[in-house]
Amino acid sequence: MNTVWLIVAVAFGIAELMTTSLTLVWFSIGALILMVLSTFIESIIIQIALFAAISITLLVIFTKYFVDKDKTFKYDTNLQGIEQKKGVVKVEILPYMTGIVTLTGEDWTAISENNEKIEAGQLVKVIRIEGVKLVVKPTDNQ
């Protein structure tokens, strides 16, 4: 049975080399541990149960330790810095309806902050982002 656990360990090790997640390595280590324990435990059912328990325990404990991410990290998306920028209304924004605003060369769905009508061609300022819509208000500043 030692040979079987060695084959399982090598298989999980090779599979881990194809990923970058540090997930399958714990199953490889679990199989190596079972390779040693199988000399003392004859029951295949107990061996499989121990393999699963050891591997999952290692996965849970060490994944939290090795993959702990910085809590202050923020994902960089194109939404950073859009608030307070100015754009031009491309498709008229009607009260309680959406329109289109061109901002930094991209078209965005937008709604009016005060549910007012904003004509096409009007300069607007982004107040905030709600879901996938910009909330804008008219501005006279260039």
TrEMBL record:
The keyword Amino-acid biosynthesis does not apply. It holds the Pfam family NfeD. The chain crosses the membrane at residues 6-37, 44-67. Keywords: Membrane, Transmembrane, Transmembrane helix. It is found in: Membrane. Gene3D superfamilies: Nucleic acid-binding proteins. It is a multi-pass membrane protein. SUPFAM superfamilies: NfeD domain-like (SSF141322). Residues 85-138 form the NfeD-like C-terminal domain. InterPro entries: Membrane_assoc_protease, NA-bd_OB-fold, NfeD-like_C. GO terms for cellular component: plasma membrane. This is NfeD-like C-terminal domain-containing protein. It comes from bioreactor metagenome.
